[in-house]
Amino acid sequence: KNLPPVFFGKLSALMSEIHSRGVLYFDLRHMSNLLVRGGEPFLIDYGTCLHVPPLVPLLKFVDDGAELYIKQQVSPGLLSPRENRRIKKMNRLSRMWFFNKLAGKD
User: Fold this and answer.
1) For the whole prediction, is pTM greater than 0.90?
2) Residue 6: its pLDDT value, please?
3) DSSP secondary structure string for all residues of 16-66
């Protein structure tokens, strides 16, 4: 279903809060881990999270890209041209992502 622009601002704020605590979520692309109640985002299933404060600046791009992926899936009309370019780049990078190799997805 389409979600309003304000939802994505709230999701981004939630991810920023998680990152500020030194946590990488790593599983946001699986929308089954995202609940929406009353227009508010809630994350569940923290099994793939890592608490590695020094690595957050280097790896938060994975979570940031997943936010865009969700936006593309549920409200593609809200994507800017810049966000669309970033999604294409992230899709290319995800084919090389080491977790995909470990899971036998590539």
Assistant:
1) no
2) 95
3) HHHHHTTEE---TTSGGGEEEETTEEEE---TT-EE-GGGHHHHHHHHHHH
